[in-house]
Amino acid sequence: KNDNEKLSENQRDATLENEKLARENKEMHAQLAQAKRKESTLLEMLSKMHSKEDLEKRIEKSKSENEKLSKQLEETKTKESKWKTLTAKVKDAIEITKSENEELKMQLANKKAEE
């Protein structure tokens, strides 16, 4: 009977130990699941940070390209303005030459008429 009581006591102790281990196991699984969720969240945040850095780099590159294009546009506008001025001067010179030619033709006609 003493052996049976000891055996029964040992079984009870083993059952209690098993229950305790099962609770600890369950708790560890919960902690592991929570750690995995945190890891997933952190990986997602890291991914967003990288894509944010990529976007910032692309924005800087775009700004740089826009500045270059703005300068080119200004240069083109300046050249266009100079070209328009030059064209206007050439047109004026052509008109002056035409009127001088007309005047010379009339003088020539007058001289011929005088002769």
Task: Give a description of the structure.
By secondary structure, the chain is mainly alpha-helical. The chain is 98% helix and 0% strand. The protein has one helix at 2-114. It is rod-shaped. It starts with a helix and ends with a helix. The mean pLDDT is 93.
Q: Keywords for this structure?
A:
1 helix, single chain, 115 residues, 0% strand, mainly alpha
Task: Summarize the helices and strands and which ones pair or pack.
Blueprint: H1 2-114
What is the strand content? under 5%
Q: Approximately how much helix is present in the residues?
A: over 70%
Q: Low-confidence parts, pLDDT < 50 over ≥5 residues?
A: none
Our count of helices gives 1
Helix/strand structural class: mainly alpha
Kindly state the number of beta strands: 0
Task: Summarize, please.
The chain has one helix at residues 2-114.
